[in-house]
Specification:
single chain; elongated
């Protein structure tokens, strides 16, 4: 057991069940080397915690180089697009053991996109409007929680609408 004198930031907690399922999908075919972008995803997921790791990341090929876009968390748990330089260097160093000789790896800050919603619903008159409204807001907040989605993952508003329509009073 370790007690840190200062809280860490930029990384993530132990993986959730959904994240483990996501990691398994890419790890099986990686063969302990980085050839494809999926191999890079699998290797980044395996970085030991002592090196630090980004909260969310995305790996793409851009101008014949592998670009890793990262997002971290600040001390209060809010997204930030700044990743500590030490963590970025640790990621590069770790991947250097697995990447192809001619691969150039670059780590950049990801983009945070803030969204707002305007929701129009019809509330059944037999229900308390404020209670139904609170449940709607809570459901949207939970659905859009950054811990539920991977960076670059598509988010389907139709799925959110379907879930909202199932609420009592809507």
């Amino acid at each position: 057991e370790v007690t840190n004198t200062t809280p860490s930031y930029g990384g993530k907690e132990a993986p959730t069940k959904e994240e483990i399922k996501y990691m398994i999908k890419y790890n099986a075919s990686s063969q302990n080397r980085c050839v494809t972008l999926k191999d890079y995803i699998a290797k980044i997921d395996q970085i030991p915690a002592k090196y630090g790791c980004p909260f969310r990341y995305s790996v793409i090929e851009e101008n014949n180089k592998v670009v890793i876009y990262t997002l971290g968390l600040d001390y209060e748990g809010h997204l930030m697009n700044f990743l500590a330089e030490t963590v970025a260097e640790n990621i590069k160093e770790y991947l250097s053991n697995y990447k192809m000789i001619n691969d150039f790896v670059e780590i950049q800050s990801g983009k945070i996109i803030n969204l707002s919603f305007r929701v129009k619903v019809y509330i059944d008159k037999s229900y308390d409007k404020s209670e139904v409204t609170k449940r709607i807001i809570d459901m949207i907040y939970d659905y859009m929680d950054v811990r539920r989605h991977m960076m670059g993952e598509d988010i389907y508003i139709g799925d959110l609408q379907k879930e909202l329509s199932k609420l009592d009073g809507v």
